[in-house]
Amino acid sequence: MIISEAQHVFHVIGAETLGNALPNLHNTPASAASAPESSHPSGRPEELPHDELDAVGEVEADDDDLTRPPLLTAEPEPLTAVIPQSLAGERLDKAIAQLFPDFSRSRLQSWIESGRVRMDGETAKIRSKVSRDAVIVVTPDLLPEQLAFTPEALDLDILYEDDTLLVVNKPVGMVVHPAAGNWSGTLLNGLLHRYHDAAGLPRAGIVHRLDKDTSGLMVVARTLTAQTDLVRQLQARSVKRRYIALVWGTPAESGLINAPIGRDPRDRMRMAVVHRATGKPARTHFTRLATGFLGELPISVVQCDLETGRTHQIRVHFAHLGNPLIGDQLYGKPRVQRSGITLPNGFARQALHAWHLGLVHPITGEAMAWHAELPEDLALLAAELGVGDVLASLDETGEFKAGDHYSEADDDEDEYD
C-alpha cells in the first residue's frame, strides 16, 4: 500500500460499471411489455460496454452472482395430478412430494397450509389420506425472488429528472437492486413503478450502486442511449463523485490510498486488501477536513474521491489504514467492541454519504452537478462529535466556502496522533 501525503484530491472518479454482462431486467414477451425503440441498424438495443462488474463505490451485493429471475406479473398456472394406486392411503404431503418432484417438500407443505392445494375440489390438509384417482390441484405461489422485479410504489427522493436521466438521493436502509434477503423495497422496484418504460432497460437504468447503509446521490438513466453514455463516462472517470466519511483516529491530512482489493480469503462475506492475483487495483484520494473526539478517542471527517470503484472500497481502504469508518458493522466492529464505546443516538451504520455528483448530460452536453445534505442521523452524529459546523460549511461542490477554513487555533488543536 502507498500513501502519498502530498497528493492532491482529484474530482474525477473511476467507476466500474454494470455493462452488457448484466442480464436484461426480464424476458417479458412483447405482448406484455414494450421496450423503447432502438436506433440500432439491426433493430436491437445497443449493448452496453463490458467492464469488470465491480460496483461503483460502495456495494451491498455479491457481484459474482448477477443472474436474476424473470419478471412475473401473474400467478403460475395451477398444476393437476391424479393419485395412482401406488400412493393410495398415503398422507397428502408425502403423496404430492412424489407427484410434483420439482418442488421441495417444505414448499409443498407451505402451500397446503396456505390453502393452495385442493383434493377433489376441497381445500386439503397436510395429514389427509389420499385415495386412488383423487384429483390434486396445486396452485404454486410465486417465490420471493420471482417477485423481485415488480413495480412498487416507493417514496423516492428525486433531486432532478428529465427525459434522459434522474438523480436520486438514496436513503439509508434502501437496497439498490433485488438480491438474496432483499427481494423487494429496492430502488429498482421503485423505478419500475415510477417509470413504466424502465422495464425495457438493463437494471431499470441503474449504472452504479451504493451499499444499503450508505446514503447519497446516484444517477439513473431513462433511455438506453443515456445509459450507454453514462457507463462510458464512468469508465472514462469523468463522473465526479465525492463522499463524506467519519472515521476513527487521525489519518494524514491528504493522501492517495493505492491498495488492491479482492475477496477476503478468510471470510467470503468481506472484501480486503489483497496483493496477490485476485486483488484488483483500487485507488482512493482523500483529504482530512476536521477532527473531533468521542470521549477520549479521536475521530476525523474525510472527503473521498474514488479513482476506481471496487466493492466496499472506501470502507476497506480506511480499515486497512487503521481508521475504519465509524459505525461500520463489517469492517470496524472489532475496534468498537474492544473499546467498549457506544455511539451517540444509537448510530449503527457506516458513516458514509455520497455527497456530490457531477457529470455531462448525455444529450445536451451540459456539465451538471448536484449535492445532497447529510441525512439526519449522520448530521446528529457529526454534531455530537463536535464536527457538525465543519460539515455545514461545505458548499455545493463539496469544497469549503471562502472564509470557512479552520482558524489557526483549530489547526493547532487538530494536530495530534
Description:
- The chain has 417 residues and is α+β, with helices and mostly antiparallel strands.
- 18% of the residues lie in helices and 22% in strands.
- It contains nine helices and 17 strands.
- The protein has helices spanning 92-99, 105-113, 187-194, 224-235, 313-321, 333-339, 376-384, 388-392, 408-414; strands at 2-3, 12-13, 79-82, 117-119, 122-123, 135-138, 158-161, 165-170, 215-221, 239-248, 254-258, 261-263, 271-273, 283-294, 297-306, 352-360, 367-371.
- The strands form three sheets. Strands 1, 2, 7, 8, 9, 10, 11, 14, 15, 16 and 17 form an eleven-stranded mixed β-sheet that branches.
- Strand 16 and strand 17 form a beta hairpin.
- Helix 1 (92-99) packs across helix 2.
- The longest helix has 12 residues, at 224-235.
- It is elongated, with a radius of gyration of 26 Å.
- Mean pLDDT is 78; it is low at 1-73 and 400-417.
Radius of gyration over alpha carbons? 26 Å
Q: Give the class from helix and strand content and strand pairing.
A: alpha+beta
Please summarize the sheet with the most strands.
11 strands, mixed
Coarse shape: elongated
Number of helices: 9
How many distinct beta strands? 17
- Beta-sheet strand percentage? 15-25%
Low-confidence stretches: 1-73, 400-417
Tell me the series of helices and strands, N- to C-terminal. Answer: EEEHHEEEEEHEHEEEEEEHHEEHHH
Helix content: 10-25%
Span of the ends, CA to CA: 20 Å
Average residue-wise pLDDT = 78
